[in-house]
Amino acid sequence: MTPPANAARNSNAARDIANVLHPYTDHRAHAVNGPLVIARGEGVRVWDDQGKEYIEAVAGLWCAALGFDSKRLADAAHKQMLKLPFYHAFGAKSHEPLIDLSEMLIERAPCPMSKVFYANSGSEANDTAIKMVWYYNNAIGRPEKKKVISRLKAYHGITIASGSLTGLPANHKMFDLPVSDRFIHVSTPHHYHGAKPGETEEDFATRLATELEETILREGPETVAAFFAEPVMGAGGVMLPPATYFEKIQAVLRKYDVLFVADEVICGFGRTGNYWGCQTYDITPDIITCAKALSASFLPISAIIINDKIFQGLADGSATIGTWGHGFTYSGHPVAAAVALETLKIYDELNIVEHVKTAGGYMQKLLRERFEGHPLVGEVRGIGMVGAIELVADKANHKNFEASAKVGPRLAKAGEAEGVILRGLANDTIAFSPPLIMTTDEIDQMVDRTARALDAVTVQLR
Ligand code: PLP
């Protein structure tokens, strides 16, 4: 491949183009444009290999909750590596970081929970949750109750099962997903695009709950096992549930004995202004999946937290077969668990939830003040420290630009020039999900830089 014009033959950019296959990248465009090589980080900022500084408006991938340096977390990993760099948890083996972390997660759960299982990523956590639901229903004598319902535009990961739950076209097209008719999608709970003219949030929520009930009845309640939902939908476009949505959805699920799996991979550990997104929206889940902020992303680790009802089913099943035949080599890896444990202690010491309430409230207000009146901005939305602006061609009719105009990607690119790393999602939505430690001064800078980038794109589009 020819390196981009500005890439010297042996530069990082040229070697990247020659050798790296990137996630979520147009490989042909990458061969022309090259990578942005990030060399180091500190606080809420990162620097590229040319020394240019950026504010990270999305904490990497919604995950670097404590920013891009922490001696304490580095020391926790180092100490654990010297003491016991690896041990597994198969066949009832255990170690202290695993026991301590599990105890802490059960203590912090938003409702009474029983056990914690570990994986390495959000996708694996959701895959595991699906397998748990299937195993559970087999164990309690309901082998036909296996279908799982999720929402269009949901993001639950990219493995074959979690990718089937995900409701975004790019994750399905050409991958032959969903993998089976056990995966069913219902409507996206996004009032801005989904509501009928004049429909209130409450009426919209009622209509969505009715759709869910009709879907369960159409499929047969005896075949529907679980409903998966992110409390705030993240990667699909930062969409908040309409008022009364989860209350009405949960009533339907209870009526037909359908389990609730809360995907807290983005929302967990403070993002929405409570420790869990479930607390923000009064959700009582049977299973919680979490990752990302669990270790502030210093090391990969995810967790699946289950209630006692699920545990009893899994325990009965394993007693019949002689094992719960599921586990990853690195389930509860001691170094990742030690780092996660230290991360949770840091959140407690920083009183991170209170900080998010204050700084997040400031961020929401500022985003609205700065962007709501902008001619290109259709909706500003968010809660706590997760937010978004959606760019539209026609503000009055909530009409997006043609995807081919690449307005969102243009803003992300203009953001780079201004020193802010932005993340463009579907429908030209730009997400803000900064490190949870971000201060109000840093929020000002992030928003100023974004505003300058938006002005540059507005000029380009004239
Ligand atoms: N669930 C949610 C809500 C996510 O946002 C993500 C990733 O962004 C995942 C699951 C998948 O996590 P991972 O990329 O670690 O597999």
Give a structural overview.
This protein has 462 residues and is an alpha/beta fold. It has helices spanning 12-19, 27-33, 59-62, 71-83, 96-108, 122-139, 160-165, 169-172, 191-194, 201-219, 245-255, 277-280, 308-321, 334-350, 352-371, 407-418, 440-461, and strands at 38-42, 45-48, 53-56, 115-119, 147-151, 183-186, 224-229, 259-263, 287-290, 302-306, 377-383, 386-391, 420-421, 423-425, 429-432. Helix content is 42%, strand content 15%. The longest helix has 22 residues, at 440-461. α10 runs parallel beside α11, α15 (352-371) packs parallel to α17 (440-461) and α16 (407-418) crosses α17. The strands form 3 sheets. It has a 7-stranded mixed β-sheet, with helices on both faces. The protein has a 4-stranded mixed β-sheet with strand order 1-2-3-13. A 4-stranded antiparallel β-sheet has the order 11-12-15-14, covered by helices on one side. The mean pLDDT is 97. A hairpin with a 2-residue loop joins β1 (38-42) and β2. Residues 61, 121-123, 126, 155-157, 230, 234-235, 263, 265-266, 291 line the site of pyridoxal-5'-phosphate (PLP).
Question: Care to give the gist of this entry?
Answer:
Belongs to the class-III pyridoxal-phosphate-dependent aminotransferase family. The protein is an alpha/beta fold and 462 residues long.
